[in-house]
Amino acid sequence: MNKLMNNNSRHTAAGGEQEVRILRPIARLDEWPRIGDPASPGPIIAVIDVETEGLDPETDRVIEIAAALVQSDAEGRITSIVGKAYGLQDPGRPLTPKIAVLTGLSDAKLEGQAIDIGKVTAVIARADAILAHGAQFDAGFVRRLLPGVAHLPWVCSLNDIDWRGHGFDGRSLGHLLMQQSLFARKAHTAGDDVTATINLLATVLPNGRTVLAEALANAQVTTIRIDVEGETFDAKADLKRRGYRFDWSRKLWSSEVGELEADYEESWITRHYPRLRVRRTLITWHERYC
């Protein structure tokens, strides 16, 4: 198990004492150390990444999907890799140059390829939850591509961890790995990003919990989504300061807060902007990344 910043050492140079961090390559999934059957097994998590030809799950297609099933124990440690799935998909139209560079895929590599929906669904359906680093993006595409796993809840290793609160200064996958004294040899393909995410999940936060344990616990906390509707132009600055973000797909300002905060938020908006309408929606890990 990877300890936080456990490879730091001090070296004396001409300019004085310096801190040096030694980075180790992430573990390959086929080399993952099997801890053994846990006495109290935890959930099986499907770690997923998709590469797509665009950003809209309603109109753009998945061109690559990778998934790996990880068995956890009651403490959130990854005890073994228990399944994998992979597929490429010809979108039926040329990739844009930007997507080709970003994904490392080409029209020639994708030509004639088709994801085996039944096989991939069968693997992921064994899981108790699905996890991605940036689940808001992946979830929409996965639900459309694989309706057979639409019932599973989602966990996000990007948003379900308070990275800054734990002392990290960024949230990108590669940057987080480096702050845990790890590095990925490759990045951006679906398979590489799944491997990197699993390695990150196995690391330990300053509070002694694994990243996986923390993400699972936070994902299962019920929250309230506050939607603010109406003519919000005059309220825009105040809403931003209070942490609201504009949801372009629904054309309204929205914030996700704890159940205790929801009453206060609704009261504040009603008091300061009585013409605005406030709508509350209960959010569990089944709805959060819809």
Quick summary:
The chain contains 9 helices and 13 strands. The protein is an alpha/beta fold and 290 residues long. Helix 5 (173-179) runs parallel beside helix 6 (190-201).
Helix content: 25-40%
C-alpha Rg, in Å? 21 Å
- Give the percentage of residues in beta strands: 25-35%
First CA to last CA: what distance? Answer: 32 Å
Order of helices and strands: EEEEEEHHHEHEHEHHEHEEHE
Averaged pLDDT: 92
Structural class: alpha/beta
Order of neighbouring strands in the sheet with most strands: 6-5-4-7-8
- Please give the count of helices: 9
Low-confidence parts, pLDDT < 50 over ≥5 residues? Answer: 1-14
Sheet with the most strands?
Answer: 5 strands, mixed
Shape category:
globular
Task: Please characterize this protein's 3D structure.
With 290 residues, the protein is α/β, with parallel strands linked by helices. The chain has helices at 97-103, 107-110, 117-124, 135-145, 173-179, 190-201, 211-219, 236-241, 259-272; strands spanning 8-13, 16-21, 24-25, 41-52, 62-73, 78-88, 129-132, 154-156, 182-183, 223-229, 245-247, 252-257, 277-283. A five-stranded mixed β-sheet has the order 6-5-4-7-8, sandwiched between helices. The chain has a four-stranded antiparallel β-sheet with strand order 11-12-10-13. Strands 1-2 form a two-stranded antiparallel ribbon. β1 and β2 (16-21) form a beta hairpin. α5 runs parallel beside α6 (190-201). The radius of gyration is 21 Å and the shape is globular.
